[in-house]
Specification:
mainly beta; transmembrane; transmembrane helix; 5 helices; globular; membrane; 417 residues
Length: 417
């Protein structure tokens, strides 16, 4: 039984250690951005272990029917309240985003996303790789900014692309009706009509509660602590979850019909997003011939964590395993702004080590943020993992310091919404 005296001792110990560790101690920095462990790493690590255990116990026994998510705590107990259009806060950086990345062994790729913001703003993208034709892209890319008509505000929609949640964590519909152009030859345009359904019976990976504790703890323990540091972690927290399944449907390209059946990763994020905080991230979304699938990578947001290891895999039987570690390094891979075309790394999940080889077949890039704060490179890839062939994509994000090259819609005013 936990007594009041025990609680007081615990609080006193936490406060005492916190006061000691709020001193700004840095470990060795690598290329100005990437912190390493410092002299207080072990103390910080142990303290965070206790805090995360406490938060997970709190999550288990407390009802959380409002959006009060954080590390170790789900945003909502009800999946129906999670997997739907979210109410945006009044913050200008509030977002509600959906994204799908799909591929198959025959060379098809489907990459699409919609990021809802206040005042009718959306950032959206759509790519479709069609064997025999090439990589098609939405007409505005690499710019993703657009303003919705009032009748579409509150939906995951643009003028051409629409996502509709049908059954929480099970069924979504996606459609695209409009022009697309061939990457590399913008004069070649196509009329595209796509209708597809995402279906899944697999468990969702919720980054709030399903990540391995050690991946979060290792990251935060390497950073200098202060009250403002933990406030940033709280203020810029995003709920993010992912689920693999199948994308099944059809597409008509200039009247020519194709059936679609692709392995698909779907994600949903909501919270507050400031692209200026992200220096880089690298993600690997893959499916293997034996049915293994997943998404593994690393994130660098220097004011919060200079290296956060994230991800998971599904085994062929559907078992979901969180990433335990990954040896991929930022400074050795594409730090100058150009991702490598052939590289390898290892990661660990479920106690097993996976050796990954990535071969890039084709690339495209676009910009996120209303002023193009982030440059995203999408690579369509062949994967070989522990000798097993696979397919999918990698996503490399870089902080973009040059302003947008296209003008925001003339006459746009926030007070219209």
């Amino acid at each position: 039984t936990i007594t009041p005296r025990m609680c007081c001792y615990f609080i006193f110990a936490v406060v005492f250690l916190f006061l000691i560790l709020t001193i700004f101690f840095y470990g060795t920095k690598i290329i100005s951005f990437y912190n390493s462990a410092n002299r207080f790493y072990c103390f910080k690590y142990l303290l965070l272990v206790l805090i995360l255990k406490f938060r997970k116990i709190q999550n288990k026994y407390n009802k959380n029917e409002s959006n009060q998510a954080g590390y170790g705590v789900k945003s909502f107990k009800s999946i129906a309240n999670m997997d739907c259009v979210q109410v945006l806060s009044n913050d200008e950086q509030a977002i509600d985003a959906v994204y799908m990345n799909a591929a198959n062994k025959f060379g098809w790729h489907f990459i699409a996303g919609v990021v809802r913001q206040n005042n009718g703003i959306v950032n959206s993208l759509f790519y479709l790789k069609v064997p025999g034709i090439g990589l098609l892209q939405a007409p505005k890319l690499p710019d993703t900014f657009s303003v919705l008509p009032k009748d579409k505000v509150g939906t995951f929609s643009t003028n051409y692309l629409t996502f509709v949640p049908i059954q929480a964590m099970t069924l979504w519909k996606v459609s695209y009706r409009g022009p697309m152009r061939l990457l590399g030859d913008s004069k070649r345009k196509f009329n595209v009509k796509l209708e597809a359904t995402f279906k899944s019976k697999l468990k969702v990976f919720d980054f709030d509660v399903d990540m391995k504790d050690n991946t979060i703890i290792k990251s935060i323990s390497c950073e200098p602590w202060s009250i403002s540091y933990f406030k940033r972690l709280k203020d810029y927290h995003q709920t993010h979850y992912e689920q693999h399944g199948e994308l099944n449907g059809s597409v008509s390209i200039d009247g020519v019909h194709f059936d679609l059946l692709l392995n698909c990763m779907r994600d949903h994020s909501y919270g507050r997003r400031d692209w200026t905080l992200f220096h880089r991230y690298i993600l690997h979304i893959f499916t293997l011939e034996d049915g293994t699938k997943g998404n593994v990578g690393i994130v660098c947001a220097p004011s919060m964590f200079t290296r956060l290891e994230i991800g998971y895999i599904y085994l062929p039987n559907g078992t979901l395993l969180p990433l335990e570690s990954i040896d991929l390094s930022f400074y050795q891979h594409g730090e100058a702004g150009t991702p490598p075309l052939d590289y390898g790394f290892t990661f660990k999940a479920g106690g097993e080590t996976y050796l990954v080889q990535v071969i890039v077949k084709e690339s495209a890039e676009f910009y996120y943020g209303n002023n193009w704060e982030a440059r995203i490179v999408e690579n369509l890839c062949r994967f070989v993992v522990n000798g097993i062939e696979g397919w999918g994509a990698t996503e490399w994000q870089y902080r973009n310091y040059t302003s947008r090259r296209t003008e925001i819609k003339p006459g746009y005013r926030k007070d219209q919404y």
